[in-house]
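Human: Not sure, check this?
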Amino acid sequence: MAIDLEAIRRKLNNLQSSTKRTENLWKPKPGSNQVRIVPYQHDKDNPFLELFFHYDLGKKNYLSPVTYGESDPVVEFADKLKSTGNSDDWKLSKKLEPKMRVYVPVIVRGEESDGVKFWGFGKTVYQELLGFIADPDYGDITDLTAGRDIVVEFTPSEGAGSYPKTAIRVKPNQTASTEDKNLADKIVTGQTEIFSIFKKQSYDNLKAALESWLNPEENDLEGGSDLPWESNKQSQTPTATPAATTATSTPEKQPEKATKTDDISAAFDDLFN
C-alpha cells in the first residue's frame, strides 16, 4: 500500500505552523528577565491585545470569536445553561465561558536580534501594568524613545498544588527601546499580526466542536450529566421510561441510548435555530 503523500504534507505543514507560532511567542525563563513593551504595529493606539480562549473543548483550545466582536455559539450555549437554574448546569457554563489572556509585543533584552515577540499573561499582571501606565510618575512605558524596561521575575510551580508566579517591576530610568536603526525599523514595521498566530474561528466551526464535545457517545450522559433538554425530552416521552427500568442485563437498553443521541442532536438544532 503506497504512502499517502498528501497526508504527509499536511502533517509537515501543521508542524511548521506550530513551530512558527512558538517562535513568535515569549515565555519568561525562571529567574529574572528584562523586556520592553513596544507599540503594536497593527494597532498603534493599544499594545494590549485581549484575547479570549475556550480551553480544553474536546481536548483542544479555541480562540473565541468574542475576541473580535463576533457571535460565539459556545457562549450562547453557556448562557442557556445559566438560565436553567440547575447548579450543575451553572458549573458547566462557567467552564465553557471563554477565558481572557492578554498579549503584548515585546523585545527581550539580550535577544533583541530575534525581533518582536508576544508575551502572554493573565489578569493580575495586566492590572499591574495598566496601573503603572496610569501613574503619572511612569506614564507611557511603551514609548519607543522615552519608555521604560520591565523586569519580569518568574518562579515555576514547585509541585502538585502549587502554581507558577510572575512578579513585575518597572525600571525607574527612561530609555530608548534600541539604538540600533535596523532593529528600530523591525520593531515598527516587522511585527507579526496576532491573528496569524492564533487563528480566527468561524461560528460553524465552533458550533461543530461544541456539538462533538456534547456527543453522548463520548460523554456519559446516563451517568448523571443532567443537561437541560434531557429532562424535558424525557418528560415529553413517558413511553421510554419502562425500557429504562427493565432488567439491567437485557439488550432493550440499547435503543434508549440511541434515543438520547437523537434527543441531543434535535435539542442542539433547536437551540441554534
Observations:
- Confidence is low (pLDDT under 50) at residues 219-268.
- The radius of gyration is 25 Å.
- The first strand starts at residue 25 and ends at 26.
